[in-house]
Amino acid sequence: MSIYKNLLGESYERLHPKLQERYSFQESSVFHAKGVMSEIKGAKKWMYPFMLLLTRWNFIFPESGRDIPFDLVNRVYERPDGIEEVKWERIFFFPKVTRRFHAQMTIDSQRNVVRDYLGEPSLFYSDLIFRVTNQGTLAITSASQKLVMGRIEILLPKVLQGNVEVIEGYDDIKEAYTIHVKISNRLVGDLLSYKGTFRK
């Protein structure tokens, strides 16, 4: 069973059928899609050096743009400890540079959250809460977060955490998946946001 189907339980059946198909991947399966981000917004200009530094970990990036092509790849595999993990690879093709935003997700069934390790190698950790909306879309929000330093994980105070909001749906008219992501911080404002469509 897909780790996301296991997490969402009965509410999984309320997802749009195409989203159910999208999140049904299991071990050894790959979901590969291509699309276009109609808009990508980076952080404020004064944060550019810090955001540029984070690209070394295939994490968030400073660039902005419109109509940016991108690839999305999800791979499912079993870790040596027997836990099923989903690797997320998001690749954005800006005119002058290619940026990557990678993550590894597992399920914490006791707390009913997704464990999300961001970057490659992982630099940040975040609990993610998944829920199905009345419209059949998938809404994802962040909760507790940590700074990852090798095997050491340091809990971040809320004022330093990134607030993540994701809505993923399916447009029957365009016959395409839709995605809208926003990452912000209460001190510095928006860090990264993007919205667009993609097809398998």
From TrEMBL:
Residues 15-198 form the DUF4166 domain. It comes from the Bacteria. InterPro entries: DUF4166. Pfam families: DUF4166. This is DUF4166 domain-containing protein. It comes from Alkalicoccobacillus plakortidis.
